[in-house]
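in:
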C-alpha cells in the first residue's frame, strides 16, 4: 500500500492551485461489525457471562431408570417465568412428564474464557449447580465461587435445581475473575474494548439479531397473514433480560453506551417488522442518548434481497405479492417509511444522521431499482458489501485438488475471481448509482468471503480454507483490497468500510469471518493477518489538505527518535490527548490534559519491542495518527 508523505501532498497542492485534495491514504475509514451474541462466542464482550448464555432448557430433576432422560425435555414454555425470563417454579411438575423438571443453561465453548475464579451472584432462594469446566470451591446464600479451567470439556452448564416460589432465583450474574466489584461500572471485557479502540465505527447488525428479527427460524417471520402485525417498542430486548443471545439481540441502550464510551460512530439496523411507534422510539433513544459529536448510520433491516433471511421473505410476501407490485419495487416503501421517521426525529440535527440504503454488489439491476425509487433527498448514502471470495468454478477446481490444495492455491483463485467479479461489480455500482445520483458509496460489510459452494458444505479442501486465514497472503489480500477501494472511491469525503466481522472461530464449512479468532488471541503465536492489515490501513498517517495548505480533520505531528529505545518525543500543535496502541490494537499508554507546549515526552522503555500506533487529538478535537518502532 503506497503512503503519501505530507511534503509531497503540499507540493502537489501548490501545483493544483484551488483544487481540494483527498489523498489515497485518506479515502477509506474502517469500522467493524460486531459478531452475534451466542453461547459459543469467542468475542466475549461482557464480563457478566449470563449475557452470553443459551436460553433456558429443561431436564429431569432426578434420573428416571428406564426413562428417556433427554438432555433437553423442551418444556420450558410450560414453566412460569418472570418478566426477566427467570423460572418461578423449580422443580416444575406437569402430568405426562417423566418427573419434575429443573432448568439449565450452557456455554458451549470455553476456550476463549480467561482462567481463574468466577463469582456467581444471584437473588432469591434456591439451589444452583455448575458442571463442566467450572468447579465450585465455595457456597453461601446468594454467592458461589467457582474455578474455571477453559477448554477441558469446552462446556459449562449452570442448573437451577430448585427455586422458592415465594422468593425465586433471579438476577443471576456469572462474573469473570476480578470483576465482582467493577462489573456495574464497566460491564465490558477490557481486552475486547482495547481491540475495538482503533476502529472508526461499530455496526450492530448481528448484535441486534437483525436477520429474521424476533423469530428463531426464518420461515416463522413471514408466517403471518398480513404485515399489520408489527412489533411494539415494548417488545424490544430489555436491559433486565437474563440473556442477550435471544432473537431480539442486545438492548439498544447498551449499543449506545458502548459507542459513547469508545467514542465510535454507530451503525444501527431497524427490525424489518418494527411498528412506526417502535421506529420512532428507537430513533428518539439514539438521538437523546448518543453523544451528539458522534454520527449514527441508520439502515432498514439487512440484505433485503437475501432469501435465506426472514426479512426478505416477509417483504416479498407483504410488499410485493400481496400488493401486486414487482420485486424489488414493492420493498421500497418500507425502506422509505423507516428513513422518513428517523429524518423527522432528527429534525434540526440532520448532521448527526446518515440514512443508508443497502444494495447487493453483484446485482446491479436490483440495486438501481431500489435506490432510484427512493424519494430524492431522503437518502445520504448507498451501501453494497465489499467482499472477495471464490467463484463456483474456483470452488470446483479446489475440490478437485482436495487435500492437496494449499493456501496458495486458494489465494491465487481469490485474486483472479476478484479481478473478474468483485472489482467490476463495485466499479459499476459507483458509476451507475454513486456518480449518477451524487451519492456516497460506503460498505456495510466487507473483507474475505472465502467459503465453499454451496455454503455450509464440507469441502474436500477444508484444511486449505483454514490455513489461508492465517497465511501471510491474507495480509496481502486485505492490503491490496483497500488500495482497490481507494482507487474506486469518488468524492471529497472518505468512504466508510465496515469489516465483517470482529471476532469468531475459523470454520471451513461456514466461513472464518472474524478478523481475530478470539479476543485474547496472541498474534505472535497465532497469526492474525486480517487484523494486522486492517490496523495498518487504519493508521495510514492520513493528512487531508486544501489549496490553502491547512490541515483538515487530521493534525500533523512528528515522532522522534524513530526507532526509539526509551523516550519518545511527539512534536505537534496543542496536543490534548495521546493514545498509544500495540500492533494487536491494545491501548498501552494514554496521556490527557491540554498543554500549550508543542511537544510531549512519552516514556516507552517498558514496552516490548515491536510496532506501535499513536493517535493524538488537539484542543479543537482534531485527530492525528502515526506509528513508531520500539527497539532495544
Amino acid at each position: 500500500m503506497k503512503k503519501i508523505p505530507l511534503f509531497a501532498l503540499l507540493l502537489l497542492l501548490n501545483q493544483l492551485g484551488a483544487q481540494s485534495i483527498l489523498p489515497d491514504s485518506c479515502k477509506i475509514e474502517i469500522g467493524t461489525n460486531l459478531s452475534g451474541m451466542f453461547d459459543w462466542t469467542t468475542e466475549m464482550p461482557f464480563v457478566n457471562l449470563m449475557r452470553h448464555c443459551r436460553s433456558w432448557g429443561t431436564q429431569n430433576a432426578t434420573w428416571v431408570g428406564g426413562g428417556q432422560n433427554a438432555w433437553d425435555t423442551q418444556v420450558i414454555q410450560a414453566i412460569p417465568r418472570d418478566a426477566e425470563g427467570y423460572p418461578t417454579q423449580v422443580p416444575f411438575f406437569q402430568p405426562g412428564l417423566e418427573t419434575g423438571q429443573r432448568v439449565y443453561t450452557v456455554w458451549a465453548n470455553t476456550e476463549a474464557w480467561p482462567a481463574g475464579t468466577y463469582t456467581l451472584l444471584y437473588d432469591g432462594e434456591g439451589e444452583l449447580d455448575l458442571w463442566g469446566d467450572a468447579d465450585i470451591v465455595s457456597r453461601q446464600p446468594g454467592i458461589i465461587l467457582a474455578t474455571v479451567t477453559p477448554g477441558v470439556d469446552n462446556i459449562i452448564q449452570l442448573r437451577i435445581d430448585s427455586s422458592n416460589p415465594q422468593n425465586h432465583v433471579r438476577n443471576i450474574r456469572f462474573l469473570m475473575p476480578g470483576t465482582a466489584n467493577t462489573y456495574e461500572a464497566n460491564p465490558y471485557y477490557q481486552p475486547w474494548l482495547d481491540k475495538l479502540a482503533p476502529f472508526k465505527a461499530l455496526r450492530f447488525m448481528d448484535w441486534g439479531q437483525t436477520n429474521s428479527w424476533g423469530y428463531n427460524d426464518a420461515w416463522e417471520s413471514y408466517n403471518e397473514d398480513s404485515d399489520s402485525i408489527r412489533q411494539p417498542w415494548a417488545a424490544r430486548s430489555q436491559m433486565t433480560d437474563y440473556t442477550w443471545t435471544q432473537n431480539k439481540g442486545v438492548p439498544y441502550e447498551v449499543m449506545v453506551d458502548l459507542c459513547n464510551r469508545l467514542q465510535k460512530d454507530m451503525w444501527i439496523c431497524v427490525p424489518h417488522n418494527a411498528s412506526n411507534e417502535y421506529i420512532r422510539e428507537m430513533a428518539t433513544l439514539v438521538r437523546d442518548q448518543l453523544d451528539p459529536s458522534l454520527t449514527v448510520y441508520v439502515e432498514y433491516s439487512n440484505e433485503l434481497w437475501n432469501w435465506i433471511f426472514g426479512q426478505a421473505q416477509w417483504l416479498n410476501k407483504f410488499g410485493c405479492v400481496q400488493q401486486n407490485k414487482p420485486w424489488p419495487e414493492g420493498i421500497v416503501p418500507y425502506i422509505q417509511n423507516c428513513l422518513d421517521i428517523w429524518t423527522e426525529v432528527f429534525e434540526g440535527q440532520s448532521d448527526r444522521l446518515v440514512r443508508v440504503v443497502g444494495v447487493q454488489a453483484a446485482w446491479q439491476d436490483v440495486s438501481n431499482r431500489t435506490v432510484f425509487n427512493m424519494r430524492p433527498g431522503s437518502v445520504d448514502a448507498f451501501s453494497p458489501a465489499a467482499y472477495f471470495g471464490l467463484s463456483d468454478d474456483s470452488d470446483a477446481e479446489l475440490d478437485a485438488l482436495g487435500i492437496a490444495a494449499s493456501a496458495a492455491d486458494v489465494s491465487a483463485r481469490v485474486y483472479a475471481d476478484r479481478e473478474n467479479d468483485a472489482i467490476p461489480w463495485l466499479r459499476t455500482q459507483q458509476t451507475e448509482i454513486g456518480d449518477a445520483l451524487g451519492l456516497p458509496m460506503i460498505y456495510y460489510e466487507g473483507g474475505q468471503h472465502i467459503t465453499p459452494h454451496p455454503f455450509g458444505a464440507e469441502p474436500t479442501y477444508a484444511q486449505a480454507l483454514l490455513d489461508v486465514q492465517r497465511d501471510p497472503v491474507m495480509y496481502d489480500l486485505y492490503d491490496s483490497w483497500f488500495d482497490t477501494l481507494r482507487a474506486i472511491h469518488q468524492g471529497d469525503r472518505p468512504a466508510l468500510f465496515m469489516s465483517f466481522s470482529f471476532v469468531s472461530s475459523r470454520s471451513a464449512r461456514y466461513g472464518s469471518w472474524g478478523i481475530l479468532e478470539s479476543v485474547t488471541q496472541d498474534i505472535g503465536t497465532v497469526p492474525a493477518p486480517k487484523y494486522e492489515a486492517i490496523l495498518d490501513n487504519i493508521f495510514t498517517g492520513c493528512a487531508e489538505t486544501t489549496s490553502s495548505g491547512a490541515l483538515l480533520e487530521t493534525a500533523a505531528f512528528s515522532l522522534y527518535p524513530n526507532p526509539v529505545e526509551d523516550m519518545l518525543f511527539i512534536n505537534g500543535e496543542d496536543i490534548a490527548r495521546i493514545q498509544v496502541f500495540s500492533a494487536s490494537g491494545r491501548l498501552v499508554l494514554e496521556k490527557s490534559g491540554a498543554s500549550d507546549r508543542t511537544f510531549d515526552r512519552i516514556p516507552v522503555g517498558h514496552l516490548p519491542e515491536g510496532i506501535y500506533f499513536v493517535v493524538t487529538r488537539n484542543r479543537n478535537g482534531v485527530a492525528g495518527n502515526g506509528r513508531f518502532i520500539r527497539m532495544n
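note: Residues 23-46+189-538 form a domain with the TIM Barrel fold (CATH 3.20.20).
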